[in-house]
Amino acid sequence: MLSEQAVPVVRATLPAVGGALDRITERFYARLFAAHPELLRDLFNRGNQASGEQRQALAGSIAAFAGALLERPDTRPDVMLSRIAHKHASLGVTSAQYKTVHEHLFAAIVEVLGEAVTPEVAQAWDEVYWLMANALIAVESRLYQEAGLAEGEVWRPMVIAERQEETPDTVAFVLRHADGTPTAAFRPGQYVSVRVALPDGARQIRQYSLSAAPGRPQWRITVKRVDGDPAGEVSSWLHAHARVGDTVTVSAPFGDLVLPEGDGPLLLASAGIGSTPMLAMLDHLAASGSTRPVVVVHADRSPATHAHAAELRRLVAALPQGTLHLWYEEPGDSGARPGRADVTALDLPAGVTAYLCGPLPFLRSVRGDLVGRGTAPADIHYEVFGPDLWLGGDS
């Protein structure tokens, strides 16, 4: 909670700070990487930096957190904080790094806003930063403890046991621990980070959902090749170079879009490679003999681009109350509906909890349709691959 002295200052300056956040975060990253080039080389996603998406996500998270402190002073935006904390934990972020961020972020604020940053303004926004940072540090500490890990020590080598070509641009990799120990437990829907050494010496990191159920001696990730450099430098490297017997560096599992316990009805809606966390959920439901109602929606360009299509059909068929609805932009003779997914055309069970994963336009469209037909916003959860540019919305 903000102090009484800080509340009016943050309220008065939020429009100015919010309006300048894009310039502030641009200066922040420039300062940070000039002082610590290893962070851009080995921690931050160079693709997201080049596109500006990481800058937008940071600005959005700061504005959303400050707004929440003013509008709901007795609560925290825990959904937003949890999503960020899980991503940070999967990268091995440490509490000490928040001090480094603070130094360069507040220097950037002064550079952009100049004399408007009086001592009172600086103190008030310092409160905002540390309230958010300390909340994230606490969540990340708990995540590390629950995983049995020391702070930031999330990495271990894994060996590629199988390589499965799913589509022309999608490959599934089955991973086992190099020392033969069983893979760690995880919750269906979670992801791992994969770190690879690139030709220029960088060790870039990307997150990939675990696309098969927990409880097996091996993990599986499914990697779609992304075009362009640096956005697709890790996926392209894995497609071109990762072979059976090779060793890759993988993090412990994290992620908060996870299959809920119980027997309530579910909607699992995905598009493209967003099907991967849903596959783990469905695999777990089928393996556990679940009888809960499950409506599965998937959208893709065509049958040829739909990774794990046969597996998806098999898993849904194994559920006594499972139904599958497919939309392809180019359905051919697949039997799928043409065009984009339309949940308004479905008969959804009362009290359904929805889990969405896919590109941001898909998420916005499906969520809007669900809210329009009466699904409570609190019952709609999502995962977006990459920086979350939807921060501040209900989820």
Helices and strands, in N-to-C order?
Answer: HHHHHHHEEEEEHEEHEHEEEHE
The helix-and-strand class reads alpha/beta
Subunit organisation of the chains:
single chain
Give the strand line-up of the largest sheet.
4-3-6-1-2-5
Rg from Cα: 22 Å
Give the strand content. Answer: 15-25%
Q: Give the distance, in angstroms, between the N- and C-terminal Cα atoms.
A: 22 Å
Q: Helical proportion?
A: 40-55%
For the residues shown, what is the average pLDDT?
Answer: 94
How would the blueprint of this fold be written?
Blueprint: H1 6-35, H2 37-42, H3 46-51, H4 53-71, H5 78-91, H6 96-113, H7 119-146, E1 155-167, E2 170-177, E3 191-197, E4 203-209, E5 219-224, H8 233-241, E6 247-251, E7 266-271, H9 275-287, E8 294-300, H10 309-317, E9 322-328, E10 337-338, E11 353-357, H11 360-372, E12 380-383
Parallel strand pairs: 7-8, 7-11, 8-9, 9-10, 11-12
Antiparallel strand pairs: 1-2, 1-6, 2-5, 3-4, 3-6
Explain the overall architecture.
There is one protein chain. A hairpin with a 2-residue loop joins strand 1 (155-167) and strand 2. Helix 1 (6-35) crosses helix 6 (96-113) and helix 9 (275-287) packs parallel to helix 10. The chain is globular. The two termini are 22 Å apart. The chain has helices at residues 6-35, 37-42, 46-51, 53-71, 78-91, 96-113, 119-146, 233-241, 275-287, 309-317, 360-372, and strands spanning 155-167, 170-177, 191-197, 203-209, 219-224, 247-251, 266-271, 294-300, 322-328, 337-338, 353-357, 380-383. The strands form two sheets. Strands 4-3-6-1-2-5 form a six-stranded antiparallel beta sheet, with helices on one face. Strands 10-9-8-7-11-12 form a six-stranded parallel beta sheet, with helices on both faces. It is α/β, with parallel strands linked by helices.
